[in-house]
UniProtKB/TrEMBL annotation:
Names of required cofactors: FMN
Enzyme class: oxidoreductase
A biological process from GO: 'de novo' UMP biosynthetic process
Record protein name field: Dihydroorotate dehydrogenase
InterPro entries: Aldolase_TIM, DHO_dehydrogenase, DHOD_1A, Dihydro_DH_chainA_dom2, Dihydroorotate_DH_1, Dihydroorotate_DH_1_2, Dihydroorotate_DH_cat, Dihydroorotate_DH_CS
Lineage: Bacteria, Bacillati, Bacillota, Bacilli, Lactobacillales
Description of how the protein assembles with itself and partners: Homodimer.
EC number: 1.3.-.-
HAMAP family linked to this entry: DHO_dh_type1 (MF_00224)
Amino acid sequence: MILTETTLAGIHFDNCLMNAAGVYCYDADELNQIQKSAAGTFVTKSATVVPRAGNPEPRYLSTPWGSINSMGLPNKGLPYYLDYVSQQQTLFPEKRYFQSITGFNIDEDEALLKQITDSDFNGLVELNLSCPNVPGKPQTGYDFETVEQILTRVFEVYEGPLGVKLPPYFDIVHFDQMAAILNQFPLAFINSVNSIGNGLTIDAATERVSIKPKHGFGGIGGDYIKPTALANVHAFYQRLKPEIQIIGTGGVKSGQDVFEHLLCGASMVQVGTALHKEGPQIFDRLTAELQTIMQQKGYNKIADFKGKLKYLD
């Protein structure tokens, strides 16, 4: 029997696959579709202190190699998602879920975590440090000093399993520096990577940019970012203490892509652009393709190959 189950922060998940925050998780209808799919769990939209409409449309475009978006964190506010997850915890007490949050400063991060602490939430929190699509707001994940300050404050006020979603890094020294910061804290996981920020695509016929916000600049996802995502997953797998597990995200549209993220050291794998294009039924296909690859290679479980990427002699 070929098993795609996994464990993260001591919590068992029947399948290593799930959605990425921002895709099929805006409201109860979308989350219900993920809940009914073959995904092992779901993560909510990155929730803010108050609901947000997000950036003006058009703000998302599928491209031949992936997608570009500048959504601007549209969400219904944290209380909405906590209420929804509370209902699911009652209906499916054996399952655990991920609540994504993002504050616009440390005080807001603390306020969001207090709401979670005061609720009956029993899952994992994903603190988003990497949204590249809010005008006037830099990606926190590239400010290493601020990341350290945020995590210091966060772990003074929150005791549950918590991880951070990171932007992609492109320099070896940045992997070293960020890992040194992350290793100071009792993080349950990192999620690597979010979209590559501030890409630009052009409509050839009209000679115009493809999306409206930020004069066409947006986050790039899909095939474009898979090599960068794999590099980030493996670089952090090499550098982080074993207690900090990794969720791999970026460029996943086939079972082979899932396999490679796991091979690089991911414990779970999230799907974004391909999920947006194909819908939640993609999890059936990806699971079957991953199981076929594992069977062909003689692997019965993810632990047989996770993190065992080979190098050239």
